[in-house]
Design a protein that fits this description.
Blueprint (H helix, E strand, L loop, with lengths): L10 E6 L2 E5 L7 H5 L1 E8 L3 E8 L2 E8 L1 E7 L6 E6 L2 E5 L4 E6 L5 E8 L11 E3 L12 H8 L3 H9 L6 E3 L11 H4 L3 E3 L7 E3 L3 E6 L7 H4 L2 E7 L4 E7 L5 E15 L5 E8 L3 E4 L4 E17 L6 E3 L6 H4 L2 H8 L3 H8 L8 E2 L4
Antiparallel strand pairs: 1-2, 2-3, 3-10, 4-9, 4-11, 4-12, 5-8, 5-10, 6-7, 6-9, 8-13, 14-15, 15-16, 16-21, 17-21, 17-22, 17-23, 18-19, 18-20, 18-21
Helix pairs in contact: 2-3, 7-8
InterPro entries: 11S_seedstore_pln (IPR006044), Cupin_1 (IPR006045), RmlC-like_jellyroll (IPR014710), RmlC_Cupin_sf (IPR011051), Seed_Storage-Functional (IPR050253)
Protein name: Cupin type-1 domain-containing protein
Family: Belongs to the 11S seed storage protein (globulins) family.
Length: about 350
């Protein structure tokens, strides 16, 4: 069966005055189910409040736009109230309860990418809400709720039924919400736009890698991530994940072209990608991208906390490690052709600036 790797946009699942929740459907993007990957976006308007919930999947959250507040409660821990802004990546292990709030005029948009191998539905996140019309406690009898919380049944009924919205609400401008604490941010999140660069190639591109060294919590999530900013008309070297990981890529800004090649040298994807697109590269398949003149940024998760890549062009590529005799035999070319090939790309690695 042929794999459909066509990039897709998210579709609205629910929402209201406070904002909306979007997700990618595994029926439209089959590689989500194939790779046990979930992908979704939360968009909050001013005073939008995403009600407390937990998920059946470990995730990495990435702030695409705006600024706001995230409340995070790790199992049997105290609440952390984080200031969040564009570029922040947050690791969300199993069992974490989160809420999200936007008090600014600019829409707050958060991307979620995660592992659904233990989820109820492969390729989809299932959220369990603590309150609201579909909250967990709407399913318990009043007797059970009142005994669990040690309140009168009338109080239990009020607590369970007063919030009639589902998932996202708009709170009053006068509502007082917890103030974020900078000290809560450390160890919980990393701003990929401000972090030290792992790769910085003039006129080529920049990379920040999220791993257990700069954000140890990703070890509990079991995922690695990176933010790549490719300069205008630059190329990202053909390469693959050599530790059997999947690459899940969301285009944050700009546009460009992508090609993916699989087994037997078959090109399985050739298309234009733009902001908002999500696509998945299967294990060991080789991918390369070329940005349009305005450049292209993307955020990716890799299904291992410390990913390793092999590149097939550039100074650090496998070609530079192989001996000339092996290259001549493998390509079936004379020595002068091999020498011309080997003399190129001696300085550049990973990203290649546009031809002059």
């Amino acid at each position: 069966m042929e794999l459909d790797l066509t990039p897709k946009l998210a579709k609205k699942i629910y929402g209201g005055d406070g904002g909306a929740y979007y997700a990618w459907c595994p029926n439209e993007l089959p590689m989500l189910r194939e790779g046990n990957i979930g992908a979704a976006k939360l968009a909050l308007e001013k005073n939008g409040f995403a009600l407390p919930r937990y998920s059946d999947s470990a995730k990495v959250a990435y702030v695409l736009q705006g600024s706001g507040v995230a409340g995070i409660v790790l199992p049997e821990k105290e609440e952390k109230v984080l200031p969040i802004k564009k570029g922040d990546a947050i690791a969300l292990p199993f069992g974490v309860v989160t809420w999200w709030y936007n008090k600014e005029d600019t829409e707050l948009v958060v991307l979620f990418l995660g592992d659904t191998s233990k989820a109820h539905k492969s390729g989809s996140f299932t959220d369990f809400f603590l309150t609201g019309s579909n909250g967990i406690f709407t399913g318990f009898s009043t007797e059970f709720v009142s005994r669990a919380w040690d309140v009168e049944e009338s109080i239990a009924k009020t607590l369970v039924s007063s919030q009639s919205a589902k998932g996202i609400v708009k709170v009053a401008p006068t509502a007082k919400m917890p103030e974020p604490k900078k000290e809560h941010y450390n160890g919980m999140a990393l701003n990929c736009e401000e972090a030290p660069l792992d790769v910085d190639i003039k006129d080529g591109g920049k990379v920040v890698v999220l791993n257990t060294k700069n954000l140890p919590l990703v070890g509990e999530v079991g995922l690695g991530a990176d933010l790549v900013r490719l300069n205008g008309s630059a190329m990202c070297s053909p390469g693959f994940s050599c530790d059997s990981a999947l690459q899940v890529t969301y285009i944050v800004r700009g546009s460009g072209r992508v090609q993916v090649v699989g087994a037997d040298g078959k090109r399985v994807l050739e298309t234009t990608i733009k902001a908002g697109n999500l696509f998945i590269v299967p294990r060991f398949f080789v991918v390369s991208k070329i940005a349009d003149p305005d450049g292209m940024d993307w955020f990716s998760i890799i299904t291992t906390p410390n990913p390793i890549f092999t590149h097939l062009a550039g100074r650090t590529s496998v070609w530079k490690a192989l001996s000339p005799e092996v290259l001549q035999a493998a390509f079936n070319v004379p020595a002068d052709v091999e020498q011309k090939f080997s003399s190129k790309r001696k300085a550049e690695e990973i990203f290649f600036p546009p031809p002059k």
